[in-house]
Amino acid sequence: MDNVNYIKSYLDSSIAVKKSLRGSDELLNTISSVSNLIIDAYKKGNKVILAGNGGSAADSQHIAAEFVSRFFFDRPGLPAIALSTDTSMLTAIGNDYGFDKLFSRQLQAQSKPGDVFIGISTSGNSENIIKAVEIASELGVTTVALCGEAGRLRSMVDYPVNVPSKITPYIQECHICIGHMICAIVEKAIFQPEEN
To answer: Where would I find the SIS domain in this sequence (predicted)?
Structure first.
């Protein structure tokens, strides 16, 4: 297969997953509910905390940056933290407590009731995200999972957003698209409410 045909095939496959997401009223309603949850959290002085591994760590940082910096327009920053950014903290926790405690330890230290935790895991089985969800629930932090169509996280969180695919790249592409949609909805609702 030549490169151009491969690119077309890849795009067709990726678009098909997004079309499946668009066709699921349940998933669209969940994304809307998560957006409203975050709007409410921000209005009450809370924050969004995100975590993931590998590409999902990058996605958590990307989404946090959209909240703190800006998305479509200039406005004050919104408080968001990605738990995968501090190498000293990650290596200390990993060394002292184990890799599975990377995010739960940080949540225990930095979250408060009313915050929103978004765990990103394409498999839905990342042990450190599962442990973070468990501690978040104990701390009164609302939990959201961005995952694929399988995995344990789906049944553990308050708001599961399950991309209808088992293929990691397509799931990740949908995750950042979902993150962007949530950022856009939140930004508009808080800073341009008269236009809603």
So the answer is: 38-196
* DSSP letters spanning 130-143: HHHHHHHHHHT-EE
Binding-site residue ranges: 53-55, 62, 66, 95-96, 121-123, 126, 172, 180
Rounded distance between C-alpha atoms, residue 31 and residue 25, angstroms = 10
Query: Which residue matches tokens 């703190």?
Result: 68
Annotated binding site for Zn(2+): 62, 66, 172, 180
Q: What confidence category does residue 13 fall into, taking pLDDT thresholds of 50, 70 and 90?
A: very high
Q: What domains can be seen in the chain, in order of their start residue? A: 3-195 (3.40.50.10490)
Query: Alpha-carbon distance 149 to 24, whole Å?
Result: 13
For the annotated binding site for substrate, the residues are 53-55, 66, 95-96, 121-123, 126, 172
Prediction pTM value: 0.95
